[in-house]
């Protein structure tokens, strides 16, 4: 499109019309769709357009009110009805939509073609930023237009189209969306809540998968694959467990143009798919334990705020489903798996987690007890469940008649577990380690641990430098380090630095004329920016040492930040204050379900209610006579509380 428009240069009206068509095409699948009303020529490198702004579900209430005055006069009921009448009411907000257009970003500012519609330069349209934005009343529709005038300020902000337009501290949500896209992990897709996982994300997933898969195989778990589709009869079989989830189940109702006689569900999880066959395959004690795992996708049609990796409508996971003759064996496995999950978070992703048990209210319906690893996102003050390992007891065995005969010929029911972790792990990693320059990948999961960049000055021995880069990569690769050289000749070293920083590569090696002369290289750490000159004689040991240090440092810094958010408290007043300060709260609790419901009700609001996150296995001392922070009854345990994802 950019090339076509460039050819059109000079034919102003035609090019404007082309821009408009393009923008309208791009918005066709969006609902609510921002309607482009006119394109305007700005300075030589800026274009802006007038658009009708429709409030987006994702916007906070004050913004919705500001952008859509009539909403003030709607009752809550009318408002809810209006919102739910949108097919994709949770589509990205207007701001996000504009950024997502990403139309032909110029490679370099100087070569920026007149007609390249560069959305980075279109940063002038910033609904958040009311300065430089005029509001105009639309006579015909009564809706509000945002008309951008001038906008010089933002135009110069980004020279290369690299870099982020939000900081992690100022606007965490927008920062996150931008980082996962610019870091090349995610591409947005035209179905809300569904995302394209690009190689940069999948390679992280595969590294974790390789570890976990090998570990469960040591535990004699076998991989298998069950179908994606579930017949309605089977899905309904375990009613109690399905009931609350029913609205999230996606259905296939047609093949081609004809309605299916019986609609087919898409698995949201595979209990009902797998357990009828457990019943068939398990006859006697020799068939036990049965330990199966599958790596697959699942679909849950969620309606609340979709977020790449963290809450998407389709995601990848492993789900393990095991059956034992005794509860003791099941109990042991629950904790073995939980330890593997801790390992994935702490040792691979460098994210501190808390192992613990979920409250009654948070336990998987149909299970006996649920254990989890819980992480925390300091910027939003939210806890996030990292992975779960459930003991299902004999509930499913009853429902699906999974019985066996023991050595003495007596009938018994199996004890079951199920456990899962998903691509959410990657989202937590981005949120915890990412910074204002982009992604920060822990070396253990980075597809590329090290990038070598030649820095040839004007009269330097360019070939010599390039050769040194290639040789450096060869040496490091032979030593098992994931390294590559960026020898592209159409980008400057500075551009490459920013690019690989955005992608989060843990270590950068620069080789310039001075390095060549001294038989050394310069290493720059992504986590703290520290620069070290390394002699090529000790290259491998030094680099290995640095990668280990980066891995450790990421964990230490993340732990320090999380620990700084922990607030140990004992009263309701302290609880409310701490919640307002985005704390991770550890409080003594009576462990009663009604009290947790009450905590939820009393903390309801725009930001979402507080809930229990887990009761940590590692319990501080609980002095005799300690009272529950919420009910004043005798406390039974210390439990983590907070808002959560
Ligand atoms: C809960 C429980 C469990 C196997 C795990 O956490 C580990 C792996 N499954 C999953 N859960 C549901 O059962 C569920 C069911 C339906 Cl029908 C749904 F639409 C959404 C669900 N979400 C979670």
From TrEMBL:
Transmembrane segments: none annotated. InterPro entries: aa-tRNA-synt_IIb, aa-tRNA-synth_II, aa-tRNA-synth_II/BPL/LPL, ADF-H/Gelsolin-like_dom_sf, Anticodon-bd, Anticodon-bd_dom_sf, Gelsolin-like_dom_sf, Pro-tRNA-ligase_IIa. CDD domains: ProRS_anticodon_zinc, ProRS_core_arch_euk. It catalyses: tRNA(Pro) + L-proline + ATP = L-prolyl-tRNA(Pro) + AMP + diphosphate. The keyword ATP-binding applies. Residues 227-442 form the Aminoacyl-transfer RNA synthetases class-II family profile domain. The keyword Nucleotide-binding applies. GO terms for molecular function: ATP binding; proline-tRNA ligase activity. Pfam families: HGTP_anticodon (PF03129), ProRS-C_1 (PF09180), tRNA-synt_2b (PF00587). It is an enzyme of class 6 (ligase). One of its GO terms (cellular component) is cytoplasm. Keywords: Aminoacyl-tRNA synthetase, ATP-binding, Ligase, Nucleotide-binding, Protein biosynthesis. SMART domains: ProRS-C_1. PROSITE patterns: AA_TRNA_LIGASE_II. One of its GO terms (biological process) is prolyl-tRNA aminoacylation. It comes from the Eukaryota. Its EC number is 6.1.1.15. NCBIfam families: proS_fam_I (TIGR00408). This is proline--tRNA ligase.
